[in-house]
Design goal:
It is a single chain. This protein is an alpha/beta fold and 243 residues long. The chain has helices at residues 30-43, 58-66, 85-100, 119-132, 189-193, 220-234, 239-242, and strands spanning 2-8, 23-24, 27-28, 48-55, 70-73, 106-110, 136-142, 152-154, 160-162, 178-188, 204-208. The strands form 3 sheets. The chain has a 7-stranded mixed beta sheet, sandwiched between helices. It has a two-stranded antiparallel ribbon with strand order 2-3. Strand 8 and strand 9 (160-162) form a beta hairpin. Helix 1 packs across helix 4. It is globular and about 55 Å long.
Length: 243
């Protein structure tokens, strides 16, 4: 079985400048995701695993060289604010297959700005993909808000309405909903490589992670909150990644 692990991070970011490669607790943010990928590879020696860093950033190229990783440069058209990350991952897959003259079975993508993950989380997502043969399996966390109960939106008539009108009077009775925490994705190779398919509109499945593991870094405050969480609460729990 051949598995490609991708770590994708473009240079630009509107909310937090160069967030994928800025220093986080003494190391570039990307370093913690690289370590998680390497630990997954080390613990699964029965699988042929390649790890590839993808970016339009020269810092990333140097890090890939230092870490003995593959590097695929991201083209400009896939590095804009409106570019799809799925398209970037597909680009890495096809270029790596051509470069290494092999065909992968699965692609695992790890998000750089979600470093609070354990190797067991990656294994859970990968194993579920292999078991279910979904087009994509991804990590989620229990949502703190529920559109069937306590979420509203502004409709096309500029009126505030409940997001999903229902008769539920207790949140516990409403359907369970989850936030996609953007941490781990595992794609079936043939679905990802097919330009006519959108993986998330095909057969999908999820793996639930602990909700405190996820915090989207979209603003400067998020970056410092994440540093505070790791330093004061989670460093021991995630010592395989942060120590």
């Amino acid at each position: 079985m051949n598995v490609l692990m991708t770590i994708c991070g473009r240079a630009g970011s509107k909310g937090v400048g160069n967030k994928n490669f800025r220093i986080f607790l003494g190391k570039p943010m990307v370093s913690y995701t690289i370590k998680a990928a390497k630990l997954f590879k080390e613990k699964n020696k029965n699988i042929e695993i390649d790890i590839c860093l993808n970016s339009d950033n020269e810092i990333a190229r140097k890090i890939a060289l230092e870490e003995n990783l593959f590097f695929v440069e991201r083209p400009n058209e896939l590095a804009s604010d409106i570019a799809s990350k799925v398209d970037a991952i597909r680009d890495v897959l096809l270029k790596m297959e051509k470069k290494e003259n092999k065909k992968y079975d699965y692609v695992i993508d790890l998000d750089i700005t979600s470093p609070l993950r354990k190797v067991s989380d990656i294994e859970n997502v990968f194993n579920k993909e292999v078991e279910t043969q979904s087009d994509v399996v991804f990590s989620v966390v229990p949502s703190r808000r529920n559109p069937y109960f306590n979420m509203v939106e502004r409709n096309s008539d500029n009126k505030i309405v409940f997001s999903k009108p229902s008769s539920f009077v207790r949140r516990q009775d409403a359907p369970e909903v989850y936030d996609m925490n953007a941490s781990i994705y595992c794609y079936k190779r043939d679905t990802l490589a097919d330009f006519t398919k959108v993986p998330f509109k095909e057969k999908i499945d999820i793996v639930i992670m602990k909700d405190t593991y996820a915090l989207d870094i979209d603003h400067e405050e998020d970056f410092y909150i994440m540093e505070c969480l790791v330093k004061n609460y989670y460093k021991d729990e995630f010592k395989e990644i942060f120590l």
